[in-house]
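Chain A, query sequence.
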Amino acid sequence: MDSPRRPVTLSGAVMAHPKRLKEARLLAEADPEGRIRVTTDPEPEGRPTALRTALVSWGCVAPDATHHLVLQDDVLLADGFYEQVERVASRVPDEAVSFYAGWEARNGAVARLAALTGSPWAYTLQEHVPCQALMLPADVARGYVRFQEEHGEGWPYDVVMQQYLNSLGIPVRFTTPSTVQHDEVPSIAGNSYHGFRQATLFADRAEEPATYDCPRFPVVPFYQYGDARCAVRRGTEWEYLETERYLRREGLLDQCRTAYAAAGPGALPERVTRAVWATGFALGVVTAGAPEPDPAVAAAVLETLVPGGLCEEYTAAELLAMAPVARDLALAALAEGRRAESRPVAPEPGAARLAVTGGDARFGGQLARLLGDLGHRAEYVPGVPDAGDLDGVPCVVHLGSPADADLTDAVLTAAGKAGVARFVLAGSAAVYRGSPEGPVPETALAGPPADPVALGWWQEEERCRQWGERTGTPVQVLRLAAPVGPHAPAGSAPVEWVHLAWTRHSLTLNERRAHQILDYRDMADAIGAVLAAPADRPVLNVASATYTEEELADLVSDVSRRTPREESREPGAERWTMSTDLITAELGWRPAASVFEGMRAMAQWYACDIHGDYDVP
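Chain A, predicted structure.
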């Protein structure tokens, strides 16, 4: 319900680099009341970062202000923008408000949904806050400086802002259409490699909206980095999954593919055509209950689909040439999706039941859903289970950890009382630490290893094996390479390096070291392959790919932020890798997921989702 107007006193600033003082002054002078200051980078010759200027821009809130607005110097304003700012501040005085949603962002996809459903507002996803034009309540704005000084740690400015607002539980809404446009100028902060960036939908005149009611969409299809994906809200968490996986769960994938085949080949590359169709179809599915969208608005927002999804791969001219073709394809898919009949897929009555235990609840829940996609009736059991939690469950998949041996013991006890018929321990390749160079087979460990970390994992395995011998229950151990993907366990090189890259720390590389990683989807597929076969093999190695230090550093830079590197020649760097020949030969399992996508999903989660989310009141 719309709230009454409250009195507003506005102050503001334009974040500017000295090279753009002219543009910044024009933005400030556009305010007829003269309330906007130009604030400049106090160290313009330093390493490019918006954080230095942010401290100045958010540190100049007027003493009598109720709200503070900060603009970046590379934006264009719609006519009537400052009048709109005052109206919004008076109607939603306690929220953060952004006036821009870029076509390359997940929040740009939220803006697309808002436009298709006729809503002038929407709440953001768990993603960096759109900071091109951001207004905060004055007291909130005054607190930002201390937060950045204490918690900034080199994170990108828009991520620090997201962390800050999350810590206060303040929702971020943005207007649709955007009344701020991203100007076509090179990024001083070093973000030009992100490509041509514009608003999902821009209006050159800021009009009074029909309502200030603001939805948060439970499912958001988006096209980003060339991949068609969906954000699905689960409580206060978001699950990000391939759009085709989402459609399969809803019983709509066959309808989508049939309609795609009937549409015939398009003029765009096949991978683009498929992704655009899937995105348009999913948009139709999730907006089917809303009135038919305005044709002009639908065409406008779907014309920005390909420019946003491929802006890092193509030039602006190439994107603009592709956009109309993609628009027409997406419009056809949108119509098909709105007509589709959803039939959510339920496991077959005879499908295998299994419980996932241990580990982080979000990672475990994600794994259970992925196993559900394989036809299992899988459920994550959080915390310490008892026999009742596992009653009637023939198989347990336990995410082990030497740091939580008591939990493993409790799970084994509960499994024994419940009469579980099979136990799978998701262990770690770290059990091989200290091994000689070369592919290490499952038979390499004849006894306890000397390395203390490896010994902890070996003891975790032994605990499960001995329980199996006592109870007569088949136990299988999967020695997993470092998992990558959302909610990936901490402590591995990929997670640590993503943290270093996001926080602008150098990566220290040793050319002798090698890394194996396991995509979270490959992990689920490998467990599925194990469960589909007799429990004949007590130990299996599982990995998606192997990288040198340099190759892994390149991958981390591509999915997060480009970062400097240093060389190290410390003695004792381990170059061993696991052999995965056995699971391939015995079970026919091979890695199939895109590790690049898994790494990017992990990097995005680590930058944004790991720091928590807020619930909208």
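The chain has 20 helices and 25 strands. The first strand starts at residue 10 and ends at 16.
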